[in-house]
Design a protein that fits this description.
By secondary structure, this protein is α/β, with parallel strands linked by helices. The protein is 42% helix and 13% strand. It contains 9 helices and 7 strands. Strands 3-2-1-4-5-6-7 form a 7-stranded parallel sheet, sandwiched between helices. Strand 1, helix 2 and strand 2 form a beta-alpha-beta unit. The chain is globular, with a radius of gyration of 19 Å. It binds nicotinamide-adenine-dinucleotide.
């Protein structure tokens, strides 16, 4: 019979990779993090959270005019190195080149956060087929390309962490907006992270996903008031979230505090899917 203690027949790891201080385990000093969609609402706040913990940031943007300004502000506020890269995540060659350039510029790569994403314009039958292609290409293919290119570096160094920003819409067909293509792409992201976690565990890599609910950013901010009222009434906490409310979960997943967490999805949705 195996014992859970440190006794003779212990199945415990005799030398677990654990810091005694949880605050030390949460630090990212000197580590390099890539974040896609890093100049967007959620991406910018995640960047600030990880920079506050000491991470240097490779901030990827697509069409932002303020990415350089935001990156300089983060560098000044937290004394870390930041650099921006213009990358279309639907192009694997661009993604691969930017991963390799990041490794050259920073000397290492520790974390990939595949966060870029766009909403569907309409329901599954009303969306144009080209819109399905576009949403899938950014939200699903783009996530895969990002974690794949980083994963190749991670596998070589036998360490590395990836996080995919999925959505509560990957768990439930949330209403009132109809957005089947988005929902399906995000569900794909959740299972992609789960599946890759099993493959990566063999050599020491970890990958998880985060499923936010209604977060106050450009994606949700432009919606009509009536739609927002309905969201809020369907959300047990009766409000949307400030994007800063996501910083903690990304810091946990990017850091050694989550050293035994892989293949998991973290729902941060004010209770929407629990309901
Ligand atoms: P946002 O629009 O502010 O940010 C999205 C980012 O993705 C932008 O910076 C945009 O430039 C980038 N992007 C779009 N197309 C791209 C492409 N082809 N290549 C590279 N980058 C591209 O919105 P956000 O709310 O910050 O969204 C961030 C992530 O969170 C997305 O994946 C989104 O689906 C997800 N999410 C958002 C909410 C919400 O309510 N805001 C809820 C659940 C999930």
């Amino acid at each position: 019979k195996m014992s859970a203690s440190n006794g003779k027949n212990s199945i415990r790891n005799p030398n677990p990779p654990v810091e005694d201080s949880v605050f030390k385990a949460l630090r990212l000093d000197g580590r390099t993090v890539i974040i896609t969609g890093g100049a967007g609402g959620i991406g910018y706040e995640i960047s600030r959270g990880l920079a506050e913990a000491g991470a240097n940031l490779s901030i990827w943007y697509h069409n932002s005019k303020v990415a350089d300004k935001l990156a300089s502000k983060i560098a000044a506020d937290f004394g870390v190195k930041t650099k921006t890269y213009k990358v279309d995540v639907t192009s694997y060659s661009e993604v691969e080149a930017a991963v390799n350039q990041t490794v050259k510029d920073f000397g290492r790569l520790d974390v990939m956060i595949a966060n870029a994403g766009v909403p569907s314009k309409a329901g599954g039958l009303d969306d144009k087929v080209e819109d399905w292609d576009r949403v899938r290409a950014i939200d699903f293919d783009g996530a895969y390309y990002s974690v794949r290119a980083a994963g190749l570096v991670f596998r070589q160094q036998k360490s590395g962490v990836a996080i995919i920003t999925a959505s509560m819409s990957g768990h439930a067909a949330n209403v009132p907006q109809e957005q089947s293509c988005y929902n399906a792409a995000k569900a794909g992201c959740i299972h992609l992270a789960k599946s890759l976690s099993v493959e990566w565990a063999k050599w020491g890599g970890r990958i998880n996903s985060v499923s936010p609910g209604y977060i106050d950013t450009a994606i949700s901010g432009d919606c009509p008031f009536e739609m927002k009222e309905e969201w809020f009434s369907l959300t047990p906490m009766k409000r949307d979230a400030d994007p800063r409310e996501l910083k903690g979960v990304y810091l946990y997943l990017a850091s050694d505090a989550s050293s035994y967490t892989t293949g998991a999805d973290f729902v941060v949705d004010g209770g929407y899917t629990a309901r």
